């Protein structure tokens, strides 16, 4: 997938309504253009649509209406298989609650992201070790995630997000469960990744994180501005 010509992300009038007795208009006609290499931060109150937006951008959910182009490619008509393939190769995710397999080691968690994509076991192990070194956990590769601190877990999650070389890393409150020291470590890693050309989109309540953004956005009641 070439990311040079078009913006890496181009959403037009993207809406997401959750059906129910009272439908919830979680996102209302969002327009968003993100150039390759940007560092985007999104702030907004609870329930304003931040996670919904990230789920759409990450191809974890589909819009009710509107268009979403990722790497120049319209995603609306993709089959579920094609969406999964594109998600696995183009996007990395980091969540507030880490979403790791606690009974597995750090290396196993990172490797899995590659094994799902058909990377061979030896190459996956090598690349996982490299990604863990990058986040300062080279010496913890064989430690079970269950026994790691929150800050260490989030660094494992970042290693997992980036091991496949995604164009975009989407983060939903990545420092939300961390103290200020560990938040700082995570922020440094995101800044590093961005310097190396990875496009970063971060949802945050944390003013220190928001201030890192080269493109700072706010969302209120599903309206992005
Ligand atoms: N699967 C769903 N079904 C029904 N309503 C949903 C669903 N997901 C989200 N919503 C609703 O959509 C609105 C936006 O939710 P969203 O999770 O995007 O908010 P948020 O900005 O991430 O909030 P927070 O800061 O608390 O995480 C909320 O009113 C929420 O209740
Ligand atoms: Mg949320």
TrEMBL record:
InterPro entries tied to this protein: AAA+_ATPase, ABC_transporter-like_ATP-bd, ABC_transporter-like_CS, ABC_transpr_LolD-like, MacB-like_ATP-bd, P-loop_NTPase
Keyword flag Manganese: no
A Pfam cross-reference name: ABC_tran
SMART domains, alphabetized: AAA
Keywords for the protein's UniProt record, in alphabetical order: ATP-binding, Nucleotide-binding, Transport
CDD domains, alphabetized: ABC_MJ0796_LolCDE_FtsE
Molecular functions (GO terms): ATP binding
ATP-binding as UniProt keyword: yes
Domain ABC transporter: 9-225
Source superkingdom: Bacteria
PROSITE patterns reported in the protein's UniProt record: ABC_TRANSPORTER_1 (PS00211), ABC_TRANSPORTER_2 (PS50893)
Coiled-coil intervals, chain numbering: none
Stated name of the protein: ABC transporter ATP-binding protein
Organism lineage: Bacteria, Bacillati, Actinomycetota, Actinomycetes, Propionibacteriales
């Amino acid at each position: 997938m070439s990311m040079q010509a078009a913006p890496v992300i181009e959403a037009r009038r993207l809406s997401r309504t959750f059906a129910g007795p009272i439908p919830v208009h979680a996102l209302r006609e969002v327009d968003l253009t993100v150039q390759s290499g940007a560092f985007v931060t999104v702030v907004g109150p609870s329930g304003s649509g931040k996670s919904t937006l990230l789920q759409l951008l990450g191809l974890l959910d589909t819009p009710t209406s509107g268009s979403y182009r990722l790497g120049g490619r319209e995603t609306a008509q993709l089959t579920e298989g094609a969406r999964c393939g594109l998600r696995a190769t183009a996007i990395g995710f980091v969540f507030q609650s880490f979403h790791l397999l606690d009974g597995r080691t750090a290396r196993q968690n990172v490797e899995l992201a590659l094994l799902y994509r058909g990377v061979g076991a030896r190459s996956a192990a090598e690349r996982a070790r490299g990604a863990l070194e990058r986040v300062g956990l080279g010496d913890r590769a064989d430690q079970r995630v269950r026994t790691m601190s929150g800050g260490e877990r989030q660094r494992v999650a970042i290693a997992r997000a980036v091991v496949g070389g995604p164009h975009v890393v989407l983060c939903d409150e990545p420092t939300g469960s961390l103290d200020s020291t560990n938040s700082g470590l995570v922020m440094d890693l995101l800044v590093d990744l961005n310097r190396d050309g990875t496009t970063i989109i971060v949802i945050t309540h944390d003013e220190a994180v928001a201030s890192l953004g080269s493109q700072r956005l706010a969302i209120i009641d599903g309206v992005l501005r």
